[in-house]
Amino acid sequence: GSAGLPPMEFAIKSGAAFGLDMHPIEIRSLDDLDARTASSELKELDAFLVGTDGFFDSVPERIVRPLNRLRRPAIFPDRPYVEIGGLAAYGVSYNDVFMRLATMVDRVLRGESPSTMPFERPERFDLTLNQRTATEAGLAFPPLILAQAREIIE
Fold this sequence. Notes:
Elements: H1 7-17, H2 30-38, E1 48-49, H3 54-57, H4 61-69, E2 74-76, H5 79-83, E3 88-92, H6 94-109, E4 125-130, H7 131-136, H8 143-148, E5 151-153
Parallel strand pairs: 1-2, 2-3, 4-5
Antiparallel strand pairs: 3-4
């Protein structure tokens, strides 16, 4: 997270700054996800912010489908979630990260010591939107959001 905070704590503090009451829900397995989406617990929430997770990132459809059935807005960490029907994704631009990584590898191969290179954080983030999912959920993206999207999936 930013300012040295763990990502969840950063999300809670950021949400509070905008008057949002964030309710972290830890889901440890697909069975846990299925049980929670079937219960009333998630049905009471207005929207979802899904964090990145190596296991769940490997099965994005198992996250997207149950959340879409709840007909609430959900923002995901990466584009693959939006490709299969998620509403929106906002996350690190992996193209930018890999281009910067290639530059660093080139510098090392030319003899520069990695210990002399500054630590870099991602600087570019991508917003991907799914217009079809928004329409099916009865939502409309504001023009400002549409203008900032790197990609809009129809």
